[in-house]
């Protein structure tokens, strides 16, 4: 009876905590969109006024923003997937040279935010080569977002290829099924879940993208997230901004539910690492794929070179290399935002630690029976996946922007930390769940018998086994928090300005040298972490 009471208390506590910070902001967003003002969740006011939603679908510009958001998101997801598939195939199913180098650079690319890719495109076409090519177009926007999304697609597609059990393909051929039918009836259905995971993740990131569209999107191509940003910060129109974000959320939740339904309809005959992958030994294929992959490695290295050259060079205009050397951009940039590197590291680390501990308590608790309600917990995490950074930023701002809790935004970075945690709870949950699920029931039972009663079996046996998954979840949350702009711009106190916010503020005002300098500091933080993440995954998949 005592054990049942303890289980109930823990479960209820987690339910309340997760529901409050996941469903609460969404309820606040709905209330604000209907009330016409920022009444928030704590005000207790509600009125059913749908004028803002009617305005969106009656105003041609707002309606165009809705369709343009869908077009861009589908375009970026499709283009980045098309780019990544040959790279993933080469890394998984061939013995092409330089595989470790190519995989490392792709993994480190997770730490490069989209606005830095935009900065590189602006500098490359405008200052360095004085090109007539304009990047402030739909095509420039599509390329910038696709290049920044390729590392995600490569990550998910490569895992999908590596987990495919080639025995199933051989069995199909042994039963007289031709190569083409085997491709469409066996290979592609087995690859789709992993490939679609990357596609959906990129789609969700693009629908709520804010920093890149603010830099590159032309006025003729409006998007919902920048529209909500301008409605709130320029006109203080809480109702219309919240309505725009609710449309993004509805689009995202439909995309997630479509993926869940698709995954259930596809027979999951294989899990874990694939058995005996057959390598394509064709020299033409191997060297063709390595040449193709190196193109994107060169783009990745070129981005770092251009950011570094613009940060350290006195002048770079119309020449292949910058002229002179200076650190003045660093000193002037950091003189305004001295605390930004520490703020970035502290907020990212705090979010990573709390997100991992939270998901570990849920996942391990569900596994051992000490925490119930796994279905509801999974529903909340599914909801989190549908929340973009911009939705998190504005909904949390609306929820806590009142006399009682306003200091949690204006004075201390509590709400910023919470936004980081819940915006990336899905990343932590995925890594931790895979690690905990890899434990067999016999290991969990044996740990309780082998360890003496005065010591905890969890810390002595279980924790060392799941530690790699916990580290992976922490690193993913840290990297994605360190490069976040969409929620940071709404939730960060002035004294806690992060590197992404300070770097972007220079870029948007045309001070590209200072923007490049602070961007280089971001890369100096995130890229080593991304490299360690790659090393960690490599050891776990051997």
Chart the SSEs and their pairings.
Elements: H1 2-35, H2 51-58, H3 60-93, H4 99-108, H5 114-128, H6 138-162, H7 166-174, H8 179-207, H9 211-216, H10 224-235, H11 238-265, H12 283-312, H13 328-336, H14 340-368, H15 374-385, H16 389-400, H17 407-410, H18 414-423, H19 425-437, H20 441-450, H21 457-482, H22 488-491, H23 499-508, H24 512-541
What do you see in this structure?
The chain is an all-alpha fold. Helices cover 75% and strands 0% of the residues. It contains 24 helices and no strands. The chain has helices spanning 2-35, 51-58, 60-93, 99-108, 114-128, 138-162, 166-174, 179-207, 211-216, 224-235, 238-265, 283-312, 328-336, 340-368, 374-385, 389-400, 407-410, 414-423, 425-437, 441-450, 457-482, 488-491, 499-508, 512-541. Helix 2 (51-58) crosses helix 11 (238-265), helix 5 crosses helix 6 and helix 7 packs antiparallel against helix 8 (179-207).
């Amino acid at each position: 009876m005592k054990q049942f009471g303890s289980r109930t208390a823990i479960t209820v506590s987690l339910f309340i905590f997760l529901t409050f910070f996941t469903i609460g902001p969404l309820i606040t967003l709905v209330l604000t969109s209907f009330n016409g003002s920022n009444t928030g969740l704590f005000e207790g006011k509600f009125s059913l006024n749908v004028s803002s939603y009617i305005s969106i679908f009656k105003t041609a510009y707002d309606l165009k923003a809705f369709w343009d958001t869908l077009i861009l998101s589908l375009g970026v997801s499709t283009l980045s997937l098309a780019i990544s598939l040959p790279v993933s195939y080469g890394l998984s199913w061939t013995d092409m040279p330089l595989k470790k180098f190519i995989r490392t650079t792709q993994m480190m690319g997770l730490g490069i935010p989209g606005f830095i890719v935009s900065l590189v495109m602006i500098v490359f076409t405008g200052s360095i080569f004085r090109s007539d090519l304009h990047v402030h177009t739909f095509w420039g926007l599509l390329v910038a977002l696709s290049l920044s999304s390729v590392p995600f697609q490569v990550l998910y597609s490569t895992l999908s290829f590596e987990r495919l059990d080639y025995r199933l393909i051989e069995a199909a051929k042994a039963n007289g099924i031709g190569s083409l039918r085997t491709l469409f009836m066996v290979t592609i259905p087995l690859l789709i879940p992993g490939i679609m995971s990357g596609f959906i993740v990129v789609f969700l990131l693009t629908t709520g993208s804010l920093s890149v569209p603010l830099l590159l999107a032309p006025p003729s191509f409006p998007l919902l997230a920048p529209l909500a940003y301008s409605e709130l910060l320029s006109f203080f129109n809480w109702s219309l901004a919240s309505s725009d974000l609710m449309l993004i959320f509805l689009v995202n939740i439909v995309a997630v539910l479509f993926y869940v339904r698709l995954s259930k309809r596809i027979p999951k005959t294989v899990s874990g690492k694939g058995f005996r992958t057959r390598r394509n030994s064709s020299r033409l294929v191997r060297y063709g794929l390595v040449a193709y992959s190196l193109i994107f490695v060169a783009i990745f290295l070129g981005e770092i070179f251009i950011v570094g050259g613009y940060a350290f060079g006195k002048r770079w205009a119309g020449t292949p290399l910058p002229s002179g050397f200076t650190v003045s951009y660093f000193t002037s940039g950091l003189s305004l935002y001295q605390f930004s590197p520490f703020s970035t590291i502290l907020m990212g680390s705090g979010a990573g630690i709390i997100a991992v501990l939270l998901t570990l308590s849920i996942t391990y608790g569900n596994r051992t029976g000490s925490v119930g309600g796994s279905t509801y917990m999974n529903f909340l995490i599914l909801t989190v996946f549908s929340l973009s950074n911009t939705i998190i930023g504005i909904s949390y701002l609306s929820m806590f922007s009142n006399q009682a809790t306003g200091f949690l935004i204006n004075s201390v970075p509590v709400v910023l930390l919470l936004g980081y945690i819940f915006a990336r709870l899905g990343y932590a949950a995925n890594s931790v769940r895979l690690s905990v699920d890899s434990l067999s029931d016999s290991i969990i039972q044996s740990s309780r018998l082998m360890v003496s009663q005065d010591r905890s079996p969890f810390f002595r046996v279980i924790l060392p086994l799941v530690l790699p998954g916990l580290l992976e979840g922490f690193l993913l949350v840290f990297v994605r928090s360190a490069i976040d702009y969409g929620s940071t711009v709404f939730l960060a106190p002035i004294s806690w300005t992060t590197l992404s916010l300070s770097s972007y503020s220079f870029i948007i005002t045309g001070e590209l040298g200072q923007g490049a300098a602070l961007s280089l500091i971001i890369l100096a933080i995130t890229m080593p972490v991304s490299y360690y993440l790659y090393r960690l995954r490599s050891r776990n998949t051997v």
